[in-house]
Amino acid sequence: MKQIVVAITGASGSVYGVRLVEELLKARCRVSLLLTRSGLDVLRYETGLDWQGTVSERLEQMRATFAADSLLEHYGEDDLFAPVASGSSAPDAMVICPCSMGTAGRIAAGLGSNLVERVADVALKERRELILVPRETPFNRIHLENLLRLSQAGAHILPAMPAFYHKPQTIDELVDFVVGKVLDSLHIKHRLFQRWGEQPPIA
Question: Domain 3-185 has what CATH class?
Answer without folding.
Answer: alpha beta
